[in-house]
Amino acid sequence: MLNGKVAVVTGGARGIGAAICKKLASLGADIAIVDLKVTEQAEALQKEITESFGVRAQAFACDVSDAEACKALIKQVTEALGSVTILVNNAGITRDTLILSMKEADFDAVINTNLKGTFNMTQACYRTFMKQKYGKIVNLGSVSALLGTAGQANYAASKAGVIALTKVTARELASRNVTCNAIAPGFIATDMTKGLEDQYIDQIPMKRAGQPEDVANLAAFLASPESDYLTGTVIRIDGGLAIS
Ligand code: NAP
């Protein structure tokens, strides 16, 4: 279904991003795995994807909070794999604490990676998507933005920003056949949530954590032609955590 498509997945080497890389590759897309550094984990994933799915995969280093680095990355990916058609803005960090004790540096780091990173990568792909009259942008939001989770002022605000940015991008690019949608996961079992199970599982109506593959299935739908008439939406995937 995604044969001939080139997907850039930020934060692609582990957690939800790695599951998205594998799912998109299983549907035929070539994959750019993008993280802060090209780690052994990224190289192992590159090998696994190439061998399991017969598509091209390559690991790249890029700090998404750096606008120039994002532009350079898209140039590199285009030279290596071809014109980008799918952008998954998945890179994200947390620095949780109450507002009272939140350091300015921790507020800035989370906004810069999660929100500005999503903006930077969207801007880096914007002209190409416009020109080719095709593009699929999938942004990782969070139910934290919808719930206003205590202890996550920086994170929740960054993800609320991502949701607003999703809507703006969708409106600006809709006439060019480019869609942009956001996923709002609840509690997904990754490094980010390790050790926090006791705090959250009880609040989830389904009484269990989600798996990275649950999110990857939804991301693949939003990256595929099956969602061509869907844009500017936010879809929760949270076992019911943020039912309102
Ligand atoms: P994770 O396991 O902590 O992985 C985060 C990934 O982001 C890593 O690959 C990391 O690369 C990369 N990254 C961090 N800062 C970066 C930067 N400045 N530039 C490039 N890459 C960077 O996280 P996850 O749980 O899979 O989360 C993935 C996304 O889903 C995030 O946006 C997160 O906010 C969102 N989300 C997760 C949950 C959850 O319950 N897990 C819930 C809601 C939303 P390195 O390995 O190089 O550091």
What is this structure's SSE topology?
Elements (H helix, E strand, L loop, with lengths): L5 E5 L4 H12 L3 E6 L4 H14 L3 E5 L5 H15 L4 E4 L14 H29 L2 E6 L2 H5 L5 H21 L4 E8 L11 H4 L11 H12 L10 E4 L7
Parallel strand pairs: 1-2, 1-4, 2-3, 4-5, 5-6, 6-7
The structure holds NADP nicotinamide-adenine-dinucleotide phosphate.
NADP nicotinamide-adenine-dinucleotide phosphate binds next to helix 1 and helix 4.
Low-confidence stretches: none
Instruction: Provide the spatial order of strands within the biggest beta sheet.
Output: 3-2-1-4-5-6-7
Percent of residues in β-strands:
15-25%
Shape: globular
Biggest sheet features:
7 strands, parallel
Oligomer: single chain
Characterization of the model:
With 244 residues, the protein is α/β, with parallel strands linked by helices. It has one domain: NAD(P)-binding Rossmann-like Domain (Rossmann fold), CATH 3.40.50.720. The chain has helices at 15-26, 40-53, 67-81, 104-132, 143-147, 153-173, 197-200, 212-223; strands at 6-10, 30-35, 57-61, 86-89, 135-140, 178-185, 234-237. A seven-stranded parallel β-sheet has the order 3-2-1-4-5-6-7, with helices on both faces. α3 packs across α4 (104-132). It is globular. The N and C termini lie far apart (34 Å). The mean pLDDT is 98. NADP nicotinamide-adenine-dinucleotide phosphate binds at residues 10-11, 13-17, 35-37, 62-65, 90-93, 113, 117, 140, 142, 185, 187-188, 190-193.
